[in-house]
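Notebook entry, structure prediction.
Reason for the run: the old model in the group folder had no record of what sequence produced it. Starting over properly, with the input documented here first.
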Amino acid sequence: MENSTTVREFILMGLSDLPAVRFSLFAAFLFIYLITVMGNGTILLAIGADSHLHNPMYFFLTNLSLLDIFCPTATVPKMLESLLSENNIISFVGCALQLYFLVALAGTEVFLLAVMAYDRYVAVCDPLRYTVIMSKKACLQMVAGTWITGFLNSLLHTVLTFTLPYCKSNRVNQYYCDIPPVLALSCASTYLAEMVVLIVGGIFGVGAFLVTLVSYVYIISAILRIRSAEGKRKAFSTCASHLMVVCLFYGTTIFTYIRPSSSHHPDQDRLVSMLYGVLTPMLNPLIYSLRNKEVKGALKRAIVGWGKRSGERARGFFH
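New structure, fully documented this time:
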């Protein structure tokens, strides 16, 4: 450490160094990002404009759509800048902020998925008491709890990560700042920070996963008691879609975070992180909402209403 200097900025590893490939990746990820923002933004507008969707299920979906806009926004713009301008440098503070918001938003989504599973459990297994259990106050408290817990959890990890001395290489083996690749650059022991990720992340992650899993075990048991074959088919289809996204989110997150830094492979990590950081948020409008008849109806009513208002304004302008 005699000849080492303190790291003041980091260099993010890009997805490719080939100019032709970089432009293709830029176009692809810009398209995915725009679809993600537009799709989730449309859901927010549809739910906000339709009073029929002002209930707990769609209140939670609103928060999920917000998370799926914010989460890629924490990483994708910098990645697009790097692909277009080849500027892979990020300041020490910028890296810390990026890591903080990414971990906070991902953690909040873990807790929110558990809350959404519990909401469906109450709706299916205890429908007579649904409005009492899932009252407006209870929903607000649960959602506030998910956001507060997610951001406090991230604060703990961010402080432990960036109070370590960094005097080795400043090349982060990822296209954004994340806990494992940043810890790998520290010139001090990362044992405490890694153990906190494993223990705290494990407790919260496993706890939320168990809530989701147990809720769906009861939901599926209730569905199996439905006599109508058509009713069973529709219910299982809805559960399968939700569980697919839950498994994708948990699988990629656990693979990325809940393992020691010595087992990380840079190329593999970048591929996995793209799944939960870029592609999964884009799937939210497709899997959770656009297959939902109520949301489709709300979108149609919103489009028709917007068309009528535009037509009235046009007629008023010409007359």
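Summary: The first helix runs from residue 19 to 49.
The old model has been moved to the deprecated folder.
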